[in-house]
């Protein structure tokens, strides 16, 4: 029974690793797609890039870059960016306060 349990755990870890790799590849493609459209002025793609940077999907999480893309999206007419922009601004504000307190 123990052999099967070990085998099952090893197989489960292998499947999870494969899915994570496939997910990263898909997210990288999605990032490139939205980056291309965003640089051409597409507000929805700007918003999606903000989401990707805010959540670390397909890219390394970077709140400053997320703010940049949300701001550009909002300026380009995507009103949905306002709530996301406020949410990320609050996160950045809390991080700055925590860093200041740690000093």
Task: Provide an overview of this structure.
This protein has helices at residues 2-39, 43-55, 63-75, 81-102. The protein has one domain: Serine Threonine Protein Phosphatase 5, Tetratricopeptide repeat (Alpha Horseshoe). The longest helix has 38 residues, at 2-39. Helices cover 83% and strands 0% of the residues. The relative contact order is 0.10. By secondary structure, the chain is mainly α. The protein is flat, with a radius of gyration of 19 Å.
Number of helices: 4
Ranges where pLDDT stays below 50 over 5 or more residues in a row are none
CATH fold-level assignment:
Serine Threonine Protein Phosphatase 5, Tetratricopeptide repeat
Helix content: over 70%
| Intertermini distance | 54 Å
> CATH superfamily membership, which one?
Tetratricopeptide repeat domain
- Rounded radius of gyration (Å): 19 Å
What structural class is derived from the secondary structure elements? mainly alpha
CATH architecture: Alpha Horseshoe
User: Could you report the average pLDDT, rounded to the nearest whole number?
Assistant: 80
How many domains would you count in the coordinates?
Answer: 1
**Beta-strand percentage?**
under 5%
Question: Which CATH first-tier class would you pick?
Answer: Mainly Alpha
Q: How many beta-strand segments?
A: 0
* SSE sequence, one letter per element: HHHH
Shape by Cα distribution: flat
What about the largest sheet? none
């Amino acid at each position: 029974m123990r052999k099967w349990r070990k085998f099952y755990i090893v197989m489960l870890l292998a499947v999870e690793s494969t899915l994570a790799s496939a997910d990263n590849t898909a997210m990288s493609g999605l990032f490139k797609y939205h980056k291309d459209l965003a640089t051409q002025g597409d507000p929805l793609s700007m918003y999606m890039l903000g989401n990707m940077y805010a959540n670390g999907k397909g890219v390394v999480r970077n709140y400053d870059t997320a703010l940049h893309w949300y701001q550009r999206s909002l300026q380009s007419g995507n009103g949905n960016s306002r709530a996301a922009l406020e949410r990320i601004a609050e996160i950045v504000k809390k991080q700055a306060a925590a860093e200041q307190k740690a000093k």
